[in-house]
Write a structure and sequence with these properties.
Number of strands: 13
CATH class: Alpha Beta
Number of domains: 1
Order of helices and strands: HEEEEHEHHEHEEEEEHEEHHH
Bound molecules: zinc ion
Distance between the termini: 52 Å
Radius of gyration: 19 Å
Largest sheet: 7 strands, mixed
CATH architecture: 4-Layer Sandwich
Low-confidence stretches: 1-18, 21-29
Strand content: 15-25%
Structural class: alpha/beta
CATH topology: Metallo-beta-lactamase, Chain A
Amino acid sequence: MKRFAILAVLVAVAAAGAVFGQAPQGGRQGGPPPAMLTIEQVKPGLYAILNPGANTLAVRVTSEGVLIVDDMFERNYEDIIRLVKTVTDQPVKYVVSTHHHGDHTGGNAKMLQHATIVGHKNARAAMVKGNQPGPPPVTYANEAAIHLGGAEVQLHHVGRGHTNGDTIVYFPDLRVMATGDLFVVLPRVPAIDYTNGGTSLEWLTTIDNIMKFDFDVVVPGHGPVSKKEDLARFKQRFMTVQSRTRELIRKGVPKDQYLKQLKVDDLGWELVPGPFVNNAAGPFYDEMSRN
Ligand SMILES: [Zn+2]
């Protein structure tokens, strides 16, 4: 009986650890990653590494080295390097951290052995505050560019949203945008990290700012490679969730009751345990009450 009790505690601890966008741990500690990562070509010179049900990375290959956008969890490091080697002999020289969350920066400490890591100054500050390994040594405030092997990679901070330190990565010659978690293709309502400056209201303006760039393909922070129109649709769905929440507030539905009445299934989303339901639902209600 005691063994089962310990097991139950372990499961509870694992569930508590499932914060922003982090996939369930799965597998033994230090063991192989539970999911098989795959790599696919997005456009010539640009690839996506996909972790089914979890993160998506953009990989820019040039004649002078490779730049990747985000690096998942530490346990994914060897798999990421192995997959990059299947498409080029060039080493990973740069990593852009789109924001501080551990499922996007977990490989940073290992990547720093051979790569320069760049991120927004607020993303670095959040990582330092949270004692996360591998905060980006190179930061910027509004925009930056990396020139590698004749390719230009632009980093832009175009407003708050998922956090207050989100970076979008723009590949102008390929007309591709990598958004980090400002755009995710997941079955659940997008998560807002209110404790790190996230805001669902300004997120909408931030998406408008992303839409101003000239691109046709989007690599989201999670989920399959998508089209620019999918990002526009994402904004519309997010706006619908906001207006429906305001309507429930107007009807006097209290904070601890509104999720039961909030309709999202017609938008293709679910209100299942996860970063939104567990962490953001209360502050989201408050934000919608004020605005
Ligand atoms: Zn995130």
